[in-house]
Amino acid sequence: MAQVTLRKLVKTYDETPAVRGIDLDIADKEFIVLVGPSGCGKSTTLRMIAGLEEITGGEIAIGGDVVNDVPPKDRDIAMVFQNYALYPHMSVFENMSFGLRLKKVPKDEIRRRVDDAARILDITELLQRKPKQLSGGQRQRVAMGRAIVRDPKVFLFDEPLSNLDAKLRVQMRTEIKKVHQKVRTTTVYVTHDQVEAMTLADRVVVMNGGIIEQVGAPNDLYHAPQTKFVAGFIGSPAMNFIPCKLEEAAGALRARVSDTISFPVPANRTARYKPHAGKESLLIGLRPEHIREEPRHLEPDQHVFEVGLEVTEPMGMETLVYFNIEGTEICGRVNPNAGAVDGGKMRLIADLNNLHLIDDSTGKVL
Ligand SMILES: Nc1ncnc2c1ncn2[C@@H]1O[C@H](COP(=O)(O)OP(=O)(O)OP(=O)(O)O)[C@@H](O)[C@H]1O
Ligand SMILES: [Mg+2]
Fold first, then answer.
1. Of 28, 41, 284, 287, which has the fewest beta carbons less than 10 angstroms from its beta carbon?
2. What tens digit of pLDDT does each residue of 300-352 get?
3. For residues 40 and 44, what is the distance between their CA atoms, to the nearest angstrom?
4. What is the pTM of this model?
5. How far, in Å, from the CA of 22 to the mean position of ligand 1?
6. Enclosing H/E stretch for 253
7. CA–CA gap between residue 221 and residue 309 (Å, rounded)
8. Pocket of ligand 1, candidates 42, 193, 206, 207: which has the most ligand atoms within 8 Å of its Cβ, to mutate?
9. Cα separation, 200 vs 33, whole angstroms
10. Ligand 1: residues whose CB is within 6 Å?
11. Nearest protein Cα to ligand 1, atom 30
């Protein structure tokens, strides 16, 4: 097992920069997820760690040793891809043990390692089957088994679940988490699915356009995004961004979003936000779950406002409500019994403790 360090890592494909100088310290035993939109450089970063892609600049170290010039087979890493590429003519046992046989590991040692991995993955019953006799999820497990038996310093996963149907993805997600809790191998996992990222990671790395926007524990990214991009990328439905003006009156601040609606800024934010009063490019960021039906008793920093609902979407455990402030569509999440109807009026609260103030000209959360 090992830590992985990226220093000023750059990859340029004939002039086009894919990765623009990223720094990242991955701790021993850590589960790191790289997440971001298509083309942001996730796979390129992973492939550079694996040694499958030459690096244009910077440094990669595994277990403290710089591996820039070490070929993939000598990096002691195991990679699991989206198409897990099992050998069709080999049994599960042979697929899992193939790498060890190439390395001339003794037979009884191979047997022991495959049996251990099969037990962890719950595929002991399948060892004699051929890949075509397996379900998608079982094949995925064999691909992971093949990585586990090698007992590498680092696991690298590139969208390993994207070939599976939605239900199996959720199941395998839990499986991968359990496996990591057992084997504790340092893992770098790539996905474009923010739910997968949040549920699996010790720390999530949000990438965008070849740079790292933010690194943090899932709840830190959710509650304290540092940029508009991260605020909008993490969470579903996405955070609402509402243009506002910060107004100062009697030492307090209000964020005005329309002629009739202005939200009082919590007192503990006044000092931080005051320098931005009067700026033109400000947005309020408020997640749908922080816009709810008016409760019987208001908590501090909850502010009531009335809107006309345009559309309501019953989801079972909650209803999403959509309304419009000055041309901006806004989503809230209310109790299914709160009486939300299409075209109806509704009194809502904004939970202003969870408010973010964003400067849209810099993309920074203030
Ligand atoms: N072999 C290549 N030659 C030229 N450009 C490439 C090559 N591989 C990737 N790129 C470009 O580098 C950028 C990053 O690609 P990368 O595969 O790392 O994205 P990604 O984040 O994994 O996206 P996805 O979620 O779609 O898999 C993209 O703009 C892509 O077009
Ligand atoms: Mg990719």
1. 28
2. 899 999 999 999 999 999 999 999 999 999 999 999 999 999 999 999 999 99
3. 9
4. 0.91
5. 16
6. strand 252-256
7. 30
8. 42
9. 7
10. 13, 16, 18, 36, 38-44, 192
11. 39
